[in-house]
Every structure is written in C-alpha cells, then in structure tokens.
C-alpha cells in the first residue's frame, strides 16, 4: 500500500498516524506516523502490509497538542500486489515452488520468507527460523 501524497503542516499540527485494525485479531496497530510540521508540501509514503487474509480497516488518527493549528491529510491511497498468483498446470525446476492448495507456481526465493505468497500457507509450512545476533541481525530459513 502506498500514499501517493500525505500532508502534515501547521504551527501546532501535532502528529497524524495510520492504524490497521484486522477484524477479530485484537487492538489496532500503528502502521505509519508523521510527527509535527513537515512543511507546506505533499510527501510520499510507502507501507509494506503483506497479504492480509482477514477483513481489515484503516484509520487516520490525529494526535493533538491541545489545540489545532494545522492540517493533516492523505490522498491517493494505492493497494498493489494484493492478488494471489493464478493456478498453474505445472511447476517445474528447482527455482519454483508449487503451492499445495492454490496450485500457484511461485519463485522458490519466496518460500519461508514470513509472507504467505501462496494464499494457503504452504510456502511457510515446515520452516525453521534461527536468529543470528552478531553485528548484523539476520533471519535464516531452513527448509
């Protein structure tokens, strides 16, 4: 999902935040927040949501400093790459993975990446995760 444009301007504009509420899955999650005056200009923001298998709601909430002297707005919200891959008649080769129930053929690099790329969860089944806390944090998938 991306906001083509967002605007947070004014002397005491406070903050604006976008929250995600997934039906039946608990309290809202803050996805994005713009703090204070960001100038008299429209800016772009991109949020990676991944595929959401449940109905959801987005809300834009205003956090005030006690009085309003500013404007917050979002325009041109775009959802991209939301559809599942189509079913395939075959899926051959080591660089592909055939999804169990949806029969989609996806790139094997998408297997065990913490995202349900198949829509049936089969690309995330039987994955073991190991964290390496050295100088750089990495997640390694072992299949």
Question: How is the topology of this model organized?
Answer:
Elements: E1 2-12, E2 15-22, E3 29-35, E4 43-46, E5 56-63, E6 69-78, E7 96-98, E8 105-107, E9 128-133, E10 137-142
Antiparallel strand pairs: 1-4, 1-6, 2-3, 2-5, 7-8, 9-10
Question: What does this protein look like?
Answer:
With 143 residues, the protein is mainly beta. The protein folds into two domains: 2-78, no CATH class; 96-142, no CATH class. It contains no helices and ten strands. The protein has strands spanning 2-12, 15-22, 29-35, 43-46, 56-63, 69-78, 96-98, 105-107, 128-133, 137-142. A three-stranded antiparallel β-sheet has the order 4-1-6, with no helix packed on it. A three-stranded antiparallel β-sheet has the order 3-2-5, with no helix packed on it. The chain has a two-stranded antiparallel ribbon with strand order 7-8. A hairpin with a 6-residue loop joins strand 2 (15-22) and strand 3 (29-35). The radius of gyration is 20 Å and the shape is elongated. Mean pLDDT is 79; it is low at 135-143.
């Amino acid at each position: 999902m991306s906001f083509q444009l967002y605007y947070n301007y004014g002397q005491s504009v406070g903050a604006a935040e976008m929250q995600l509420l997934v039906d039946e899955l608990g309290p809202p999650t803050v996805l994005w927040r713009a703090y204070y005056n960001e100038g008299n200009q429209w800016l772009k923001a991109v949020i990676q949501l991944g595929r959401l298998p449940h109905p959801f709601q987005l809300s834009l909430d205003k956090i005030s400093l006690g009085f309003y002297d500013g404007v917050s707005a979002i325009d041109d919200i775009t959802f991209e790459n939301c559809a599942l891959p189509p079913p395939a008649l075959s899926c051959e080769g080591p660089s592909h993975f055939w999804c169990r129930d949806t029969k989609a053929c996806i790139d094997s690099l998408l297997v065990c990446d913490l995202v349900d790329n198949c829509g049936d969860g089969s690309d995330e089944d039987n994955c073991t995760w190991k964290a390496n806390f050295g100088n750089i944090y990495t997640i390694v998938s072992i299949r």
